[in-house]
Write a structure and sequence with these properties.
Number of domains: 2
Number of helices: 3
CATH class of the largest domain: Alpha Beta
Number of strands: 10
Largest sheet: 4 strands, mixed
Structural class: alpha+beta
Shape: elongated
CATH superfamily of the largest domain: Ribosomal protein L9, C-terminal domain
Strand content: 25-35%
Radius of gyration: 24 Å
């Protein structure tokens, strides 16, 4: 039986795809849980429209990410931290970098910031930001001693 996937199903496929499944699986599990519809001419047309919408949305998202990546490329941000000589009290991680970028109007998720290990010393470090879809940018994070200490 051919069915149109309404949702992403891990073992079967992604939303909008048409798959061949056994009739029992479709009637007893997938259809009652509203995970699929029986594939008809109308549902196939609907699937094509959904796919086109998803592709359009993905292209728009990708363009937006490329714009952000080009805007942030080689940007230098400064984070002040408490330290003794060159060693920080604590460390600077993705959370702190994300918060500093947010202050500069860049909404970057902590998950996108690639740090091999937390920063524990004063100085400048190159940090990679991976937006996914093979879009990456490099920023420079300058850690300075907080004069209030």
């Amino acid at each position: 039986m051919k069915v149109l996937l309404i949702n992403n199903i891990k073992s079967l496929g992604n939303k909008g795809e048409i798959k061949e499944v056994s009739e029992g699986y479709a009637r007893n599990f997938l259809i009652p849980k509203k995970l699929v519809e029986i594939a008809t001419v109308e549902t196939i047309e609907k699937a094509d429209q959904v796919k086109k919408g998803i592709e359009k949305q993905e292209r728009a998202t990708e363009e937006k990410l490329k714009k952000i990546a080009s805007d942030i490329q080689n940007k230098k941000i400064t984070i002040k931290a408490k330290s003794e000589k060159e060693k920080l009290f604590g460390s600077i991680g993705a959370k702190e970098i994300s918060e500093e970028l947010k202050k500069q109007n860049f909404e970057i998720s902590e998950k996108s910031i690639v740090i091999k290990e937390p920063i524990k010393t004063i100085g400048e470090k190159e940090i990679m930001i991976d937006f996914g879809k093979n879009i990456k940018a490099k920023i420079i994070v300058a850690i300075e001693k907080d004069k209030g200490v």
